[in-house]
Amino acid sequence: MIRLVLGVAALLSVAPAWAQDPVPDARIAAAVTEDVVEIRSDFAGAPLTVFGAAEGLQDGDDIVVAVRGPQRDLRVMKKERVLGIWINAAPVRFEDVASYYAVASTRPLQDFASFGALRRNGIGMAHLPLRAPDEERTETLLGVPGVRVSDLGAEIVDYREAVVRNKTRQSLYVEADGGVERLEGGLFIARLFLPSETPVGDYTIEVYLFRDGAPIATRQAELSVAKAGLERVLYDLAHERPILYGLLALILAALSGWLAALVTRSR
Amino acid sequence: MQIYLPIAEISLNLYLLLGLGLGVGFLSGLLGVGGGFLMTPILIFLGIPPAVAVSTQANQIMASSVSGALAHWRRKSLDVKMGVVLIIGGVFGSVLGVQLFGYLRSLGQIDLVISLCYVGFLGIIGSLMLIESIHAIRRRLSDAPAPKRRRRKRRLIDRLPFKTRFPVSGLYMSVIPPLAIGFLVGALAALMGVGGGFVMVPAMIYILRMPTSVVIGTSLFQILFVTALTTFLQAAQNQTVDIVLAAILIVGGVVGAQMGVRAGARVKGEELRAGLALLVVAVCAKLAWDLAATPADLYVLIEAGGAP
Lengths: 267, 308
Description:
Chain A is α+β, with helices and mostly antiparallel strands. Chain A is built from six helices and 14 strands. Chain A folds into two domains: 205 residues, Immunoglobulin-like (Sandwich); 40 residues. Chain B starts with a strand and ends in a 5-residue tail after the last strand. Chain B is mostly helical. The chains are: A alpha+beta, B mainly alpha.
């Protein structure tokens, strides 16, 4: 009996301590099936599978997988009608925009994650980080010096939507609610797709474990997309020895034209 | 079967590209045009970046003009001296065109300029050809004799200095007009991804008054060297020539051109010219419509800087 009481007391003393712990004991591990995706001449896109295990996963927890492609500078122009035709105007340069961005989650993001957590981590199409340094100034606002102000103002929302819309059309940006599948024993799997326009470079994969609206554990993995085989040889040649590549193009055209002339005459 | 194009960085269907080369090659064999004015807009429409489409097209046109120019060389229907003068003008035009191309690309206006050039040139040339061929068909139907050639009048061109003799064409004229025509065609080749035959042939007949027998050969001779230079400059400076795409289009184009030449032997010249004119006007109308119609998306993304 005493032993039983002690047991209950031990349980009672453990439980509150566990509930107070600001960082619950949860860890996450993740990996990709291939850490190098090779682009060869028959490349028509490739599946990308991210899998992992979440330790201490509870019911009601959610998992988010975010894959970001190499960052590139991006110019966004808005078409305006001038003299009856549409021309590109109002260019805004955004720095370091993810060239590929896929977000998969167990449920729709807004159902389990707080706005602040999504914005801080740049998770989801509505929270895509966009920086336009050319449009920014530092000002003193309400007596606080050094506040960064963007001239874009509320227009940034239009620009973000435009970037997401255009990239989604090319399948380079994807938001897949329910794209992460929970398996037994804290295991999970996310199936994504790299389209044929996938840019080459280094990709980062971030996996978040969400509880009560905030991420309680994260894990990063890496992936690289590279041209291989003949595609790589030609691409490297074009960029590293452009003169030689240009001569090769000339020889190819001259030779095939000459061959065609020979065949025509012999008939 | 999908094939990945290493410079365009996009994968397209191999048979679609071969068929495209075949179709445009057929038309070029049938109608005696280079076909660049059809191919470049189609390539851009398929999603190939305009810069890559224009530069690769120069490479393909070079291949088809090599075989054409060789055939005319053997038949001696080629004015080498006139060709060299046109090439000198073309070299300057091409160099300027490639620079202008790079500058417009950095401004984000290259698509607009390509489209405007197409609409302007195709519109003018297509309608002139259409009117001319309709007149020719009506003359034939009414059995009226062809109008007599007007006597050569002394024109402004005849007053220009630096005159020289072009024995093959039987002309004695200033080198300035051919230099200027060569320059314009060279710039067009670099900007629009065309050979420029559709501008040069009428210019040679109506402005330089060269005999029709040497016009096609000489124009192919000039196009050959100017597209070669354009290909080389685009490859060396902008890295926008896609050899894989060029090879596919060349193979399709060579076979298609042979089929076109044979089919052309069985069709009357005036109908052919009218057909070509209709095609040119249709391409022009489509491009003009795209410029004027409200775009589906008001925003365009332009990847700044090249790939790593």
